Structure formats: C-alpha cells, structure tokens
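Hi R.,

Here's the chain you asked about this morning:
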Amino acid sequence: MILYVISVGLSVTMGLMGFINLAHGVFAMAGGFILSTAMARFGVPFPLALVAAFVLVSLGSIFLEKILYSRLYARGELSQVLFCIGLILVAMAVARLIYGNLAAPVFLPDYLRGQVQVLGRDFPTYRVFLILFSGVLILSLWTGVERTRWGAMVRAAVDNRGMAQSVGINTKRLFMITFALGSGLAGLGGALGADILPVQWGYPFEHLVYFLIVVAVGGLGSLRGPFVAALLIGIADTACKYWVPALGAFLVYAATIGILLWRPQGLFGVRA
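And here is the predicted structure, written out as tokens:
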C-alpha cells in the first residue's frame, strides 16, 4: 500500500507529462521529515501532521514545477535524468545537513500502537491502519480520476495531449495540478510509511528502484496497474527475503525483467 501511494503519482505524471522524474523519492522523503518535525518539535497530532505533509509537499512541488520542471518539459530524456539526479543529490545534502545521519523519529499515537485481532490472529495496529487508510485513499483517487471532470481531462491528456489541447483543455494548468497531487501523494506516502521505511538522507536513492519498478510493471498513466504491481512486488520481495534470503531481491528483479520482456508497456500501460 505504501509503495502504491508513493508511486501512483509518478505513474500519472510520467504518463501525462512524459517527464522522467527520478526525483520523485525526494517528495516522499520530505513528507516523512515534515511528519517527524511537526510531531517531535511542535507537538502536532498525528492526523494533522499527515495533512501538513501532504499540503506542504504539494505546495513545494508547485514551486519547483514553476521554476525548474517546466523548463525541461521539451528537453530530451538525458537532460531530464541529469536534472533529477542533481535535484536528488542537493536534497540529500540538505537533509543530511539538517537532520544528520539518523532516521527521522516517528512517535505513533497510543491508539495506533500494539496489536489488533483480525480473524483470530494478531496484527500490528499500525499495519492494519495503513491498509485501511490507503484503501480509502485509493478508492477516492480512482473515483476522482474515473468520475470527475478533472479525471476526464487527465485521461484525455494521457491518451492524446494534442487533441486535448485542441478541444480547449489547459494542459499547462492540468500538468501543474496533477504534478502537485502526485507529489503530495508521495509526501503522504513517505509520512505514512516512515515507521516501516525509515526516512533518512539517503531515502531518494535507497528506494528509487522500487518506485520505478512499480511504475514500469504497472504501466504509465494507469491507476490500477501500479496497484497490482505494488502488491505483487511488496509481497514477492518480502516472501523472497523470508524464504530464500540468499537471493534477496534477485527474484523480484528477474520477474520484472520477464514481465517487461513480455509487455514492454507494463501490465496496464496506456501507451508503449
């Protein structure tokens, strides 16, 4: 669920804008640090800290989109990749300067600690909360894209940007809103998953491969594709490390290669 919440914005923005945003993990890292800072230094309750992570990352992404990203939309893939790598390195340096080498501490409220019984078995309360909360978020996102005017414009721009512009859709503003939403979701995912995927200065590079695998296997511009891919990868990665620890994540990478050789556009990709 955490992989999906972080990666789905990257899938839509890459499918819509054609921008290879390797720096997507920076927004997830920022969300985790915002949550930790808000709770540890300012005593902000956990729910409000989550909202702050989403809102502040979204606003910050709009600023970056205006002054940096928008200048590279028409550039080639090499320019975009080099820019993103540079942005990652700068963000990592800033995070290390401010927060040091230790992971951001996360203080869960009492009602999210301990165990909860589900079908006669005990599960960590926070894990159950993550599944339920992310499930509601995913349903809301799917409804927004499939049942609203904004969602129709996004799908039209993903399928045929030129035609969308010709019928009066302001793709520039649509790009900005979609980019902010995708980045905000990454920040929210980073905040939600901070107790599971520790947030520290190397976060954007450490988890980048998994975010890209989710997008590549699921397919650009798709919502259900990254969901299926995130479930497969999350479960397979944990199972492989548990049952075949000597191979680590090798089987996940091998499966990714096999899927992409079979379907280069991903499982549910809307464009090759």
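One quick note: The first strand starts at residue 115 and ends at 118.

Cheers,
M.
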